[in-house]
Amino acid sequence: MDSVLFKGLITVAALSVLIIIHEGGHYLAARAFGMRVLKYSIGFGPTLFRYQPKGSPTVFQVAVIPFLAYVQIAGMNPNEEVDPDDPELYPNKSLFARVTTIAAGPIANYLTASAIVFGLGVSNTLPPMQPAEPMQVGHVVPDSPAAQAGLQEGDVIAMANGRKITDVAELIEQTAPRAGEPTVYVVEREGRALPPITITPADHDGRGQIGVGAKLIRLHENLSVGDAAKLSIVLPCQLTMAQLNGLADMFQRRSTEGSGGPVRMGKMVAEAAQAGAAPFLWI
Predict the structure, then answer these.
(1) Beta bridge partners of 189
(2) Among 3, 29, 169, 257, who pairs with 104 as Cys (CB 3.0-4.6 Å)?
(3) Could you tell me the CA-to-CA distances from 72 to 61, 77, 107, 116 in Å, in that order?
């Protein structure tokens, strides 16, 4: 299958699953509190498929454009013509019921993430997450300044711009401000120091990058069921906070490393899918 088509299809599939789970949370909460759900739509635009169970007020449908889903609950639309005394309307339910129904979507996503972390934890397939120290090269981007300078996977970057490097953050600190400026790096290979290497970081939106990624190591191995359960509660919160901090850094232009939009996201999802079930579930 064409790689671009594969990336597009796998990205749509992954996003669709997330959306279905999110809207499923809203739907289940609304039904649990006795609200009338008029429609559960996956996608928007022209309808491809629709089904209404006998005796149910809910129409389940799949539409052409997959990047959206929604649950239509009676009474949520202020322009909807309804009986104001209808007990199944959203506005006529308790504050607790209304707030819980709104929160149920994110809660469903969080519980799904927790279940994935727990499953990967007990099966000992949690992917590596922590950058190695000292700063060891995990991969080299083809045709990048680092590749052209001869850096290889497994190399340890010991110094940059005359400063000692102990982790990936220090490497970024010394490289990012030097876009287009020749910079001397001291590299160790198989325990032996190589002659100093001069690399000119490429300019990516005003930030210097040499085109290497840090080697990642496993933080969690051979977890007990109890430890996996604890991690399934804590880790999704930690990852969410890390993503929020990354977004804040991006908007403040302190970092562009993680930005890239739908194309980059599609590439990451496709690569994870090709790597196996565990990396795909993780991403």
Answers:
(1) 192
(2) 29
(3) 12, 8, 19, 29
* 8-state DSSP, 141: -
Q: What pLDDT was estimated at residue 204?
A: 87
Q: Which residues of the chain have pLDDT under 50?
A: 1, 254-264
Does CATH number 3.20.20.10 belong to domain 130-216?
Answer: no
Nearest to 185 by CA among 210, 153, 213: 210
pLDDT of residue 127: 77
Choice among 23, 88, 170, 271 that is catalytic: 23
Token pair 């001291």: residue: 186
Q: In the prediction, which pLDDT does 271 show? A: 53
Q: Is 195 helix (H, G, I), strand (E, B) or coil?
A: coil
Q: Is 23 a catalytic residue?
A: yes
Domain borders along the chain are 3-110, 130-216, 222-282
Please give the biggest Cα pair distance in the chain: 82
